Amino acid sequence: MGRRLAGHLRDRLAAASHTLSLRGRDHRIDAMRGAALLMMFVDHIPQNLLNRFTMRNVGFADAAEVFVLLAGYASWLAYGRAFGKYGVRVTLGRLLRRCVQLYIGQTIMVMAYVFIIRLWRHFTPVSVDYLEPELAHGMSWVWRVMSFDALPSNLNILPLYIVFLAGFPLFYLLMRVQHSLALVLAGALWALVNLDPAVNFPNWLDPDGWYFNPFAWQFLFALGLTASERTQRSGRDFPRLRWLGGLCWAYLVFSALQAFPWMQWNLPDLRPFGDAVAPAKAWLSPLRLLDVLAIFYLVQSSTVARRWSGETVTGQALACVGRHSLEIFVVGTVLDLLARLVFSTFGDVWSLQVGVNVVGLGVLLSLAFWLDLWRGVGKRVARPA
Fold first, then answer.
1. How many Cβ atoms are within 10 Å of 40's Cβ, its own excluded?
2. Helical ranges in the chain per DSSP H
């Protein structure tokens, strides 16, 4: 029975991969985004031993950088081409609809956090770390959270994405004026924030402002948009340049040596610069930016990565997760909270470690497969398969 179900899912994934390939969809983008979403689920549970094996342990960047870069890449595919194909009015309507969907997802997560934590407190004490103290009592905080004046920790990615999509028409207009103008201005704003991190959106819960500084992170989103536009215009992958690939690999090796938690594994500290190098995540320091760009170039210039993401079961499963990023992110964030509450209440013994990860990852993968079928991918690919 289990083998039959696994075979059925494999056939469905293969059929979906075949049909989407015919449409020109790059499975590498979906697979990378799927991997980032699953790693975000693992990383957001501090007691989870599995997060010792995610990308944040072998480099400066982590899943958040990958997610934002690929959000930019996918946004051009969804909306950049639509301006010329469907017109300004229709495309602006699509952008507004997506922003509303993201806002609803943010609202669901906030309400789920508050409800679950307050309910859990009826049975056992819960540390204030699981919910900002200002949000733990009363309802005066609602309007602040709904207007993004207050961003609770672990609930700050979707507001960032909404801001970027709201600014997409301006970026598109600047690209129409001069192809490189939008990217140059985005880079200049990012450089300004790295010189003065105080340039930020206000956050009622944090005097330093938004944890993911939009004025800095917009550059990563803009790089994704630009890469997508130029790939579409050229009709081919990034050129595979040996010297550039070599530089990318060399940088990633340095990043891995510097970022790896040697002491956590009771190993000799092999960091070239010790504690002197600690790239800031809040304003996307250059070392983190270079790390994610090196990974992106190596993957997007690789024909092996293209075949792996479209022809293997693992690649297809990750691509399936990436195709439903909003739903997976919302559910994964709520599961993160439940996992942390389980660990804090019952301990982080091995049995719970295995159970939390198997159940959590299983729910996310099952949700992605179900969404593929529910949205008609399975039906549309049945005949080609």
1. 22
2. 2-22, 27-43, 63-75, 81-86, 88-120, 142-146, 157-166, 168-177, 181-195, 214-234, 242-259, 286-300, 303-311, 313-322, 325-346, 350-374, 377-382
C-alpha 287/C-alpha 47 separation (Å) is 27
Whole-model pTM? 0.89
pLDDT, tens digit only, all 385 positions of the chain: 445 444 544 555 444 444 444 345 789 999 999 999 999 999 999 999 999 999 999 999 999 999 999 999 999 999 998 998 899 999 999 999 999 999 999 999 998 988 898 889 888 887 766 676 656 656 677 788 889 998 888 889 999 999 999 999 999 999 888 878 999 999 999 999 999 999 999 998 889 999 999 999 999 999 999 999 999 888 778 889 999 999 999 999 999 999 999 998 999 999 999 888 889 999 999 999 999 999 999 999 999 999 999 889 999 999 999 999 999 999 999 999 999 999 999 999 999 999 999 999 999 999 999 999 887 754 444 333 3
Tell me if residue 203 falls in helix, strand or coil: strand
